[in-house]
Amino acid sequence: ASPGQMLRPTNHKIREIIQSGGLGKLSWAVAGAAFGSYHETEGVRTGDTPLSNINPSWYWRKPGGGPLYDMTVYALHSLTGVLGPAQRVTAMSGIGIKTRHFKGEAYECDADDNTVILADFGNNVFAFIHGTFAGMVSEFGQPSYFGEKGSIVGTKLNGEPIDYPGKSDGLSPLQVTPHVAGKYAAHGKLGEHHVYEDTMQLVRWVRDGKPSIVTADHAAHVIEIIEAGYAAAETGVTQTLKTTFTLPEDLSAAS
């Protein structure tokens, strides 16, 4: 889970635009991730030392493997953070690449790597969610939204980049969080810098008593979407979701 996606100012702005009617009546959204080589060629796996020779084969196995849990989960947190909790899902899912190779060894894959989910957010607003081995149709971690008066594709509103704090620091929209900007901009260069931000949210909560908008309820809801998607694909039955979450109206004040 990665509910820290909603700490990003760009997502705050996107949520504000949609909730204020900037796109008119919302039609649908798309979110997901796709990777061809799927970790085999990452720098931490192509060397000869213990820290650069990490076997990725667990990503291809049950339980817990597959692109939905691994990568799509980021976009799902952004999607639900902007639109609110989903109500029900249906899906199709399977294994597209059944054998992968790493450093000359063959590995059988039993985690689904080709999953498409259709989610209902109520009021006839739907979303297409994918975790696939090929075919990225939206920016990584950033859903696209389409309405009667315009669209937000990744971090662009009707083709124009959405402004955000931290841009002058040379950070991308996906690098900026409360503790990764301004005098802390160097932290945006860290690998997996979002984990640093998650840690700092906890530190601030404990030290200063300021609650975070990063919550277990949001995380549980996103994980339920994934697991309900798998259940829908296996049974052919649309799944009604049981979890929910709430976010404060003013995200910037809370983060």
CATH superfamily: Dihydrodipicolinate Reductase, domain 2
- Mean pLDDT rating: 92
Query: Outline, from the CA principal axes?
Result: globular
Report the count of strand segments. Answer: 11
User: Termini separation (Å)?
Assistant: 18 Å
Major beta sheet summary:
9 strands, mixed
By secondary-structure content and strand pairing, the structural class works out as alpha+beta
N-to-C SSE string, H for helix and E for strand:
HEHEEEEEEEEEHHEH
Q: For the CA atoms, what is the radius of gyration?
A: 19 Å
Could you estimate the helical fraction of the residues in percent?
Answer: 25-40%
What keywords describe this structure?
globular, nine-stranded mixed β-sheet, 5 helices, Dihydrodipicolinate Reductase, domain 2, alpha+beta, 255 residues, two-stranded antiparallel ribbon
What can you tell me about this protein's structure?
This protein is α+β, with helices and mostly antiparallel strands and 255 residues long. The chain has one domain (3-236): 2-Layer Sandwich (Dihydrodipicolinate Reductase, domain 2), CATH 3.30.360. Helix content is 27%, strand content 20%. Helix 1 (9-19) packs across helix 2 (67-83) and helix 2 (67-83) crosses helix 4. The mean pLDDT is 92.
